[in-house]
Fold this protein.
Amino acid sequence: MKSEEKADAFKLTETGTGVQFTVHVQPRASRNEICGIQGNELKLRLTAPPVDDAANKLCIEFLAGELKVAKSRLAIVSGAKSRHKIIKVSGINCEALLSLLGIPSVSDSPGP
């Protein structure tokens, strides 16, 4: 992930039970990877095709591995039939999520 990416461009919503964020999924990629921030979404490249829920399942599995949490703590809140999805992670806060994804938070930015 590029070091100039900042959390202020990434749309995160902290809920009472966890964090929600948006992802843009590119299916049928050559490998599974986080490509960084695109607009206000986290861009993911996944090897699974967008049929029979395969890309959604791989999205959850891949993010669970990257965030080091159980798959049961992740859910696709909306966008199951779209490339643009809202993912909810239970039992985590924004700072922890940004840290696990390797995205510097706004408070980590050097001041002027």
